TrEMBL record, chain A:
Role according to the record: The proteasome is a multicatalytic proteinase complex which is characterized by its ability to cleave peptides with Arg, Phe, Tyr, Leu, and Glu adjacent to the leaving group at neutral or slightly basic pH.
Name of the featured protein: Proteasome subunit alpha type
Assembly and interaction partners: The 20S proteasome core is composed of 28 subunits that are arranged in four stacked rings, resulting in a barrel-shaped structure. The two end rings are each formed by seven alpha subunits, and the two central rings are each formed by seven beta subunits.
Region (Disordered): 238-280
UniProt keyword annotations, A-Z: Cytoplasm, Nucleus, Proteasome
InterPro entries membership: Ntn_hydrolases_N (IPR029055), Proteasome_alpha (IPR050115), Proteasome_alpha-type (IPR023332), Proteasome_alpha1 (IPR035144), Proteasome_asu_N (IPR000426), Proteasome_sua/b (IPR001353)
Proteasome alpha-type subunits domain location: 6-28
TrEMBL record, chain B:
Primary location class: cytoplasm
Species, as recorded: Raphidocelis subcapitata
PANTHER family in alphabetical order: METALLOPROTEASE TLDD (PTHR32194), PROTEASOME SUBUNIT BETA TYPE-1 (PTHR32194:SF2)
Keywords, ordered alphabetically: Cytoplasm, Nucleus, Proteasome
Protein name: Proteasome subunit beta
UniProt KW 4Fe-4S keyword: no
Example GO biological process: proteolysis involved in protein catabolic process
Highest taxon, organism lineage: Eukaryota
InterPro entries: Ntn_hydrolases_N, Proteasome_bsu_CS, Proteasome_sua/b, Proteasome_suB-type
Cited function: Component of the proteasome, a multicatalytic proteinase complex which is characterized by its ability to cleave peptides with Arg, Phe, Tyr, Leu, and Glu adjacent to the leaving group at neutral or slightly basic pH. The proteasome has an ATP-dependent proteolytic activity.
Cell location: Cytoplasm; Nucleus
Length: 280, 210
């Protein structure tokens, strides 16, 4: 679509009433790898697919703990995500210092959204190129919010953002009615299944995914590597034995070289030999 | 409302070369005693729970101990308002450290942080007499003892607070001779933190309430 005339500046409207720079920023979120969030009556769960630049590099961290009762998963420009993470941590810390209690999640999300909005109305700034899934638990129960570079935010029962997230959303739409009464363990499995739906090739391994859990009686905790392995095993057993082919990384959408992610991970997995699931 | 100091109006007292004393002090002593003993692979920290002012008891159940991590606690005797401010400050710094370093602060690191924090207020000190105690990086018991402005050293045992002068000789006698210690104290209740590699356990010991 020819829209180059009105997209140079974030402070330039198009004749159709659109801010293209903001929409381009939202594209950046869609390019990031998938992140999924879901809530039950007692807990909120995040699940993310981690990407590695190449064979030699580590997998990019996507989940960050903000405070004991809150954490985020990011999709898009990681550096922008880290800045927002630092802001949120600081706000929570100050709130705790002054009020000796945890910061209400909705209020912090609104502050972050307002921060996003500022960058859509200053000619010398650019919008944040990152979408957040904020999972938390407060006196009213668990919450999941999605923020957007435009400055909008919504609360969700379940949501997915990032590359091929539509497939994850489809899974969530099919199953969300079962979420309210699900146990934390079941929620994590739902999250991983939704995440798996967004895979274009390869399969979930302990190296390329991470989940996080927060809720009644559980401080925000991130499960990755060996901690997430039992859940991946459980999924494999459900499917009746491991995924057949040699696992390979999903190719980076920006056209980077496809990395051979799975080699070491596959060897460590031992192809679904039925390790006993850990009690959650 | 003219007040006179030594027969001279207050505002002129300075010029007349007469020294005045403040009519108000920013500090108070809320009493209480703290104690810590380091073992080979454990550490015990105890503190009375009474908070008093002058001869009055304000509360029988007020904690002087801040548990920062599984391996480190801070016990502060003296002025509780300053203690509260200090503890809040240290807790914030602790959380920040964990965010940046993805691991809890070690006991020696906390000890240094406490010293720096106290010295920061060199010219309006926090009226607290602190002990930082826990397990060091090798898992051995560690006790660090401080003055009000942050001078500190690592020792095997320490006591601070109003009962210090009574307790110190007992500690010196018992611990230099390496025998188990009975804590003599007065002050409603004593809370005892036992820090081992398994974590921190808290107990309470009832004392005379008078």
């Amino acid at each position: 679509m020819f829209r180059n005339q009105y997209d140079t500046d974030v402070t330039t409207w198009s004749p159709q009433g659109r801010l293209f720079q903001v929409e381009y920023a939202m594209e950046a979120v869609k390019q990031g790898s998938c992140a999924v969030g879901l809530t039950s009556k007692t807990h909120a769960v995040l699940a993310t697919l981690k990407r590695a630049q190449n064979e030699l590099s580590s997998y990019q961290r996507k989940i960050f703990k903000i405070d004991d009762h809150m954490g985020i998963a990011i999709s898009g420009l990681t550096a922008d995500g880290r800045v927002l993470c630092r802001y949120m941590r600081n706000e929570c810390l100050n709130h705790r210092y002054v009020y000796e209690s945890s910061m209400p999640i909705g209020r912090l999300v609104r502050q972050v959204a307002d921060k996003h909005q500022v960058c859509t109305q200053r000619s010398w700034k650019r919008p944040y190129g990152v979408g957040l899934l904020v999972a938390g638990h407060d006196a009213r129960g668990p919450h999941l919010y999605n923020t957007c570079p435009s400055g909008n935010y919504w609360e969700y029962k379940a949501m997915a953002i990032g590359a091929r997230s539509q497939a994850s959303k489809t899974y969530l739409e099919k199953h969300f009615e079962a979420f309210p009464t699900a146990t934390p363990e079941e929620m994590i499995l739902h999250g991983l299944r939704a995440l798996a739906a967004s895979l274009s090739e390869g399969e979930l391994t302990k190296a390329n995914c991470a989940v996080a859990l927060v809720g009644e009686g559980s401080s925000f905790v991130v499960l990755e590597e060996d901690d997430v392995e039992p859940y991946i095993q459980m999924l494999k057993e459900e499917e009746g034995g491991g995924g057949g082919a040699e696992p390979m990384a999903e190719a980076a959408a920006e056209g980077g070289a496809a990395a051979a992610e799975g080699g070491a991970a596959a060897a460590a997995d031992d192809g679904g030999d039925g390790a006993a699931p850990m009690e959650s | 409302m003219a007040t006179l100091t030594a027969g001279v109006p207050k505002h002129a007292a300075g010029a007349a070369g007469i020294k005045q004393h403040a009519s108000w002090s920013p500090y108070d002593d809320n009493g209480g005693t703290t104690l810590a003993v380091a073992g080979a692979d454990y550490c015990i920290v105890a503190a009375s729970m009474r908070m008093s002012t002058g001869y009055s008891i304000m509360t029988r159940r007020s904690s002087k101990i801040l548990q920062l991590t599984d391996k480190c606690v801070i016990a502060s005797a003296g002025f509780q308002a300053d203690m509260k401010a200090l503890h809040k400050m240290l807790q914030s710094r602790n959380v920040t450290y964990q965010h940046s370093h993805a691991k809890p602060m070690s006991c020696p690191a906390t000890a240094q942080l406490l010293s720096n924090t106290l010295y920061h207020r060199r010219f309006f000190p926090l009226f607290t007499f602190n002990i930082c105690a826990g397990l060091d990086d090798e898992g051995k018991g560690a006790v660090y003892t401080y003055d009000a402005i942050g001078s500190y050293e690592r020792t095997g045992y320490s006591c601070q607070g109003s009962g210090k002068d009574l307790m110190q000789p007992v500690l010196d006698n018992q611990l230099k001779a390496a025998s188990p210690l009975l804590i003599p104290a007065r002050g409603d209740t004593v809370e005892i933190f036992v820090i081992t590699k398994e974590g921190v356990r808290r107990e309470e010991l009832e004392l005379k309430k008078d």
